[in-house]
Amino acid sequence: MPGTPSQSRNFKLLVAQYGQKYGILVALVLVCVILAFANEYFLTTRNLVNVLRQTSINGILAIGMTFVILTRGIDLSVGSVVALAGVVSASFATTATTAMVPGGPYPAVFALAIGVLVGVVCGLINGVIVAFFRVPSFVATLGMLSAARGLTLLYAGGKPVPALTDSFRYIGTESILGVPMPVVLFALVFFASLWVLTSTRFGRHVYAAGGNPHAARVSGVNVNRVRLLVYVISGGLAGAAGMILAARTGSALTQAGIAYELDAIAAVVIGGTSLSGGVGKVTGTLIGALLIAVVNNGLDLMGVESYYQQVIKGMLIVAAVMLDQARSKQA
Amino acid sequence: MPGTPSQSRNFKLLVAQYGQKYGILVALVLVCVILAFANEYFLTTRNLVNVLRQTSINGILAIGMTFVILTRGIDLSVGSVVALAGVVSASFATTATTAMVPGGPYPAVFALAIGVLVGVVCGLINGVIVAFFRVPSFVATLGMLSAARGLTLLYAGGKPVPALTDSFRYIGTESILGVPMPVVLFALVFFASLWVLTSTRFGRHVYAAGGNPHAARVSGVNVNRVRLLVYVISGGLAGAAGMILAARTGSALTQAGIAYELDAIAAVVIGGTSLSGGVGKVTGTLIGALLIAVVNNGLDLMGVESYYQQVIKGMLIVAAVMLDQARSKQA
Amino acid sequence: MAEALLQVRGLKKHFGGVAALSNGQFCLMPGSVHALCGGNGAGKSTFLTIVMGIQDRDAGIILRNGREVVFAKPSDAHAAGISIIEQELGPIPAMTVAENIFLGREPLARFGRVDFASMNRRAQELLDSLEFGISARTVMMDLTVAEMQLVEIAKALSHDAEVIIMDEPTSALGGAEASRLFAAIGRLKAAGKGIIYVSHRLSEIFQIADSYTVFRDGEFVGEGAIADVSREALIQMIVGRPLTEEFVKENTPGDEVALSVRHLNALDWVKDISFDAHRGEILVLYGLMGSGRSEVFERLWGLSEDRGGEVRLFGQPTNIRKPAQAIAQGLAFVTEDRKETGLVLTSDVRANLCLAHLDQLRLGPVMLKRREAAASQRMIDAFSIKTPSDRLEVSGLSGGNQQKVVLGRWFMTDPKVLMLDEPTRGVDVGAKREIYRIMSEFAKAGGAVVMISSEADEVLGMADRVVVLRDGRISGVLERAELSAESLLHLAA
Amino acid sequence: QDKPKIGAAVYGLNAEFMQIWAAALEQHPAVKQGLVEVTVFDGRYDALVQQEQFETMVTQGFDAIIFVPIDIEAGAAAVKVASDAGIPVFGSNTRVNSDLLSAYVGSDDVQSGYMEAKYVLDKIGCKGNVVVIEGPIGQSAQIQRLEGNMKALAECPDVKVLEDQTANWSRAEAQTLMENWLTAHPGEINGVIGQNDEMALGAIEAIKAADLDVKSFAIAGIDGVTDALLAVKADQMASILQDGAAQAQGALDLAIKAVDPTYEPMSEIWKTYADMPWNNGADKEYSVPWTPVTLENVDALLALRQ
Ligand SMILES: Nc1ncnc2c1ncn2[C@@H]1O[C@H](COP(=O)(O)OP(=O)(O)OP(=O)(O)O)[C@@H](O)[C@H]1O
Ligand SMILES: Nc1ncnc2c1ncn2[C@@H]1O[C@H](COP(=O)(O)OP(=O)(O)OP(=O)(O)O)[C@@H](O)[C@H]1O
Ligand SMILES: [Mg+2]
Ligand SMILES: [Mg+2]
């Protein structure tokens, strides 16, 4: 039997959705293909591992950001939280005699727990201010951006926290079966978030609270609680990212993470999540983060001059999203 | 005659609207009163003139940003456009022998026109990409942020453009009747924008296109044209701000304007304009920009230590908006 | 006598100094359908949302099964066995129908995972039992307004509540879908549930309700059994004065063709549409939901791409590519979805009223504010729009008054041809009559009206001629003399 | 008469180097003994903010200003604001292109750029390949250190500069950059010239992450931040100490002298650096020498950081 009109309609719809869903993936693949031709090293295992590692910190931040943006919010504070969680946790894991925490170094697990805790607390404050005091998230988290940076500098006295223990640095420097720890952690965060967003009740509520907060509330969703939690998630992940960064660079820097929020938001938006909430996927964010990292890596590999790099990077990313849009429109 | 029920009702409505409209003004006044008590210099004419001058550049950017945000967009590129317009216009107005433009210095008016033009062109590109290629404004202008910075460095060869002519510097350093030129220009931009938004057809279109683009389109508004134009306005004003900045500091720096977009957006949002479009006033933006400048100025005046400053600044701005929200809720 | 499921007394609510509700009173008995009637802005939705815990109240008491209750949030009301279909639809666009229906009560499988299989199955069973013909897995944003409304209904019924509030559930529905809803309501009634039913379509109320309560200007004015009240008497209670006739029709079609459409195609499924609308004529496009009527209008308005066909205005061929051209040529278009394509909810009443007419209210680029104010006041008066000030955000108006703002916008442009897509959706009887009168006067003065309507009463009362569409094609044309509910349905189905 | 009010406008306090600089001001004997009052203004890495802080200081009638501008060109207007109000301005660490400056205490960035590059080139025997990691393009320190780098590189025409890029003084950025370079030039990079220590340290971490031997690379940075001292101690890099403390205290001595002509310098630095005579505070320019950090002096330097 030839397809009925309604069947063929569904099929077209499917194609359209497929295009929309994976349009940016096409752009990513395209950029990769170009780079593979332009530079012989691009496709080496080693470089691909590098790219993944270079994606991981922004990727983790971007995943937290995805939760926030899905609820129509934005979290500008992640960069500062990276630094704060970094120095606080590092201060428990440094062998330097100048340490501000007496009795150290403490076991890495303990230090790491504290770092996540710092992130969670920052997120909690953001969340309370946004959800219960109805301050626009832009303002609330901009305040945190400033305050957390100030606290970082105060806590560390403006100096880096150096000489981290090897066990602490494990999360930044070691590998499991050839996969660097930051990548492993990123993968964990990614799959956990994917599961939460697609399969759990909380995930449904995130989409609902972002898609139509009033209707969600009428349906019994505790929208304020959802809003609170997404900032906690973003804060906690920023804390984790901060420690991975400290572990990678070998010391926790007070200037770490400056302007990281922009790249994180960019990954989310490139990945197709709408800033007006309710629509988006963590898979898209992954692709977005990879795209940014690949572009950076490729331009470095080809030895493109600094000035041109910035111009080209800007154009490439816009072009990728343009391609994505054109595809989804046509489909 | 005692007020009829309907009269007193209208009065109450007025009070409620007034409270909502000027809640943040109350916060600003409160901060000013506190600072006046905390520091003897705060209320001096000289310092108040300083505050106004210090508001002017961010204020001009924020006013352009208001147009963009009213249409549900965002313009992240303003900081980079500040730098690009600065170096390009400055290169026509420098007496330095290393000048890249032969035959200079050119008359200031010419150089200034070029600077605005540079901003307008950047805005035009943003606008076309957003309005016609449907790229989310966050991505499009983030691309411009990167590209315009790269172009700035390329154009200036990575070095500042020094030794600007006095006639060029006029817009940054001179005063008219005791009012510094940047303030005069800011006032001009403010009143012009106020007029455009409240009294012209284009202003009506901006609100409609932001509030409900679909409905606006059905009612005959050329939504794409409106979108395009707001980015042009934002770009042009960023160009102007870039030249005022160069004129004030005496040379055009390639690193000028970094992260200015955040302060500009903050002023807009603090001023009560909604990031979801359609709602907001340029008067609010003025108050928002003043609040930011007053806080910065006050903390500097009191000699608060830098690290504490960042913490306090973050908290103050959030607190101000919280106050605003609490008021408008209660009213 | 059985205990009341819900009893409300002295409910009060004001918004920034404006009283929306000054004395809300209501009593719902089990196994009954109780109609809540009242004009636009009478406070019905305010009343119902307070009962549901969506808004808080200033004063008043609510008794549920005789016990006083205070619902701080909607989920409290759900827990007490109350569910609601809100007047303004609340879809979560990016989620599927099943997810929308089970939002907040998703069935869980192991490890806290949502049991999608059982959710989809149960949602589909529910939809099928209601004969709504919607797939539970469709994403909400791919549905039409009417289908969303059906999902909303299914969702409210899925709560298995004892009290079900329906705030204008049929305003976006056609006859066939509405009768499915009525069947469902009948089953609920038989099961001893109580239903609060709000509708401005009085025929429906007389068809399904057992009792009625009327609010006027925020005040309770009366209640009783439907059996004891006549349509005229009910209308008088709602409007506050006697209304002699519901339809006003004084126009007579002329000979001159105002709008001529030939072989028009729209999208890829609306084909070969041809009709003429004459000066002085009210031409109705009738059809079932999804028959393609709105698509014809959108094509005429330049909102969808040219797929062939010829359009003439007063004999002149036109090629309208975008709305501004249509407006310039004297067309006006009231869209069916006032929230999506009609109003700028964040703007005030005046801005909304003047939006399509800005070009005539300006001097160069500058708006003439006095003329704007005067024009908007003219429309507020003409349509008796209930608002304390025209500077109030239009989102603060009651649903019916919002609809009047959309109408006012287009009448302000002084059009020659009016295209109205379900123009009286959610409008009260009094105001409907006003709208009919204005339409009739407009036609009488030589204008042409093309109206889409799903309400058979309205079509029978107002149409000079009816073009019936089915599946994107014209299935027949009926002259006024041939009109009857049966003939319409015969061609449409 | 109140005690002199001296303002210190620095380009930014977020990084360790300026923190050391600012801390040294507080440690100056005249401050500790309460003879002068010093307020530090954080310029937040923005020339305009610095200028605004000058306006604020003028409003409050500061007696003298110590100035560390973000950029050599951008500071001139700020200096003019102060000098128009009759307030003397003393440069420290970064030059200002202004003849209104009363005096300048700093170290010559061209020289340090030369020194670090020379170290790297010497270590690789004036042949092979190097990469250069630069500061934020357009900043005076970047421009001048690059000039020094180039001067040294010109002396070794056989050395090829494989890559040069900015990492904006950032360790994390430099680390990413170096990871990518190590991929693009496998086994080809012999030396790394980092224009500051942070970036050199980032390169070291990238080398470690690639499982290469740090010691087989010649790596140098500038500034002498604590982490770099530790790396020198571990024989992983060379650093050149820029004595920010001396730059700060020297400028403060000059500033006090300008307010109170009878004042004699109280800082130890004039004893430490015999090459830099006080000359009764009359000189226009004081050049604080660079100190290469070596295995010999690193412990002593580290001890100073406690
Ligand atoms: N959020 C609000 N802000 C201000 N006024 C409001 C708000 N909500 C409702 N009102 C006012 O309260 C009154 C009652 O509105 P309500 O929506 O309850 O009317 P309704 O009876 O449901 O009318 P309709 O039949 O048109 O839906 C209206 O005059 C409306 O303007
Ligand atoms: N044969 C078809 N092919 C494609 N889409 C169809 C078809 N029939 C119906 N539709 C869908 O149905 C919708 C039409 O519903 P619409 O919103 O127009 O409902 P309506 O207003 O009740 O009906 P009408 O179109 O008659 O006004 C369209 O959006 C379209 O997606
Ligand atoms: Mg209602
Ligand atoms: Mg329709």
TrEMBL record, chains A, B:
Its EC number is 3.6.3.17. It is found in: Cell membrane. Keywords: Cell inner membrane, Cell membrane, Hydrolase, Membrane, Transmembrane, Transmembrane helix, Transport. The chain crosses the membrane at residues 22-43, 55-74, 80-101, 108-132, 138-156, 176-197, 228-247, 268-295. Its main location: membrane. It is a multi-pass membrane protein. InterPro entries: ABC_transp_permease. It comes from the Bacteria. GO terms for molecular function: hydrolase activity; transmembrane transporter activity. GO terms for cellular component: plasma membrane. It is an enzyme of class 3 (hydrolase). This is Monosaccharide-transporting ATPase. It comes from Rhodobacter ferrooxidans.
UniProtKB/TrEMBL annotation, chain C:
One of its GO terms (cellular component) is plasma membrane. It is a peripheral membrane protein. Keywords: ATP-binding, Cell membrane, Membrane, Nucleotide-binding, Repeat, Sugar transport, Translocase, Transport. It is found in: Cell membrane. It comes from the Bacteria. CDD domains: ABC_Carb_Monos_I, ABC_Carb_Monos_II. One of its GO terms (molecular function) is ATP binding. InterPro entries: AAA+_ATPase (IPR003593), ABC_carbohydrate_import_ATPase (IPR050107), ABC_transporter-like_ATP-bd (IPR003439), ABC_transporter-like_CS (IPR017871), P-loop_NTPase (IPR027417). Residues 6-242, 252-491 form the ABC transporter domain. Pfam families: ABC_tran. PANTHER family: CARBOHYDRATE TRANSPORT ATP-BINDING PROTEIN MG119-RELATED, D-ALLOSE IMPORT ATP-BINDING PROTEIN ALSA-RELATED. This is ABC transporter related protein. It comes from Rhodobacter ferrooxidans.
